Amino acid sequence: MLKIGQQEAKAAAKVILSRNLIRFLERKAGQLSECAKFEREFSEKMGTKYALVVTSGTGALICSLAGLGIGPGDEVIVPAYTFMATPVAVLAVGAIPVIADIDESLMLDPADAEAKITSRTKAIIPVHMVGLASNMDGIVRVARKRGVKVLEDACQADGGSYGGKRLGSIGDVGAYSFNYYKNITCGEGGAVVTNDPTVYERAIIHHDPGTAFRSHRADLRIAPFTGLHFRMNEILAAVLRVQLRRVDGLLARLREQKARFVDALADTGLKLLPNNDPEGDCATVLALSFPSEKEARRYMSLLASEGVDSETPIDSDRHIYSNWDPILARRGSYHPALNAFARPENAASEVEYSEDMCPRTLDLLSRAVFIDLHPDSTAAAVRKKIDGCKRAADGLAAKQ
Ligand SMILES: Cc1ncc(COP(=O)(O)O)c(C=O)c1O
User: Fold this and answer.
1) CATH assignment of 6-243, given 1.20.1250.20, 3.40.640.10, 3.40.50.2300, 3.30.470.20?
2) Which residues does ligand 1 sit against, CB inside 6 Å?
């Protein structure tokens, strides 16, 4: 959702000219780095006590898992519909991803997540796909009942909300991506949010192998362990601060646009996908549901003949578990001894994968159609697209 311009260029140039390119330089008393300023502003916006900016959404997921203390011997439940980075992060900390079905909303089904819990389960990762919210009431209820943690993957839903709370701030920890395709972007980036000081401290330590030498070392209650390098730089943090100021306006324009589609299509017979929180939806897509894949594809081809682009999530490649071939083949690392699937601590895990293990997910994805919305679309372009959607719906009805 690239919305970037002069303000970001100015902010980046200011940092470059200052020559203070990395966050952990010694600065004058009271002077915060761009990264620290972004973290303060991001945690305020998300409504959490802590935020940590990192280099990617994958890094944010890994630091969140480290924050929760998850590792070999543990299982973590992930939805069958998410980008492969979600289960990859679980493998990166030595744990085993357990794949659960989605429900009609295309988000993780709380009932199937519960059914997949074993004595080894430490966390559930609901993923807010294409700006839509997961059923957080259902997931948090299951997690609290069964004593497991919730890590929200909000990488595709920066700024969205559920029940009036920002996505990512509802579970025990939340992860965001700021890569090129996301609602907020600096090219590549990510963030972790939490209210738990232990999760935060572990995440800070894990994201910076130099923690032992930093001035904030004195404030940590946990002795630094050897972390990895997910440190954000000052130039991109300055860009992110501008992007953060844009996000609510951008989502407001998308929501207003989506409302126009929803109103205009109300009596066409088209069915909107069930939505766990229509008000908090980022509205990056208009999501429709059809009785069969055949009808979904027929509607897409009618849309194409009207000049309206659409896609079905069943074609979204590495966002569907059946296309996660390195995972299905249990190739979890470059080195056999680092492969979580081969680790002795995970030997008792009975997790198995197959391409057809979640037929419900495949069926639901094959019957859904997404029409992308963009905040820069003019009123005329939106009207034209709506007319195209209506005519395609008429065409679909005529063929039935
Ligand atoms: C749902 C989801 N999780 C995690 C990620 C990983 O984010 P990044 O590409 O910033 O590492 C992505 C990125 O596309 C994603 O869509």
Assistant:
1) 3.40.640.10
2) 56-58, 82-83, 85-86, 127, 153, 155-156, 177, 179, 190
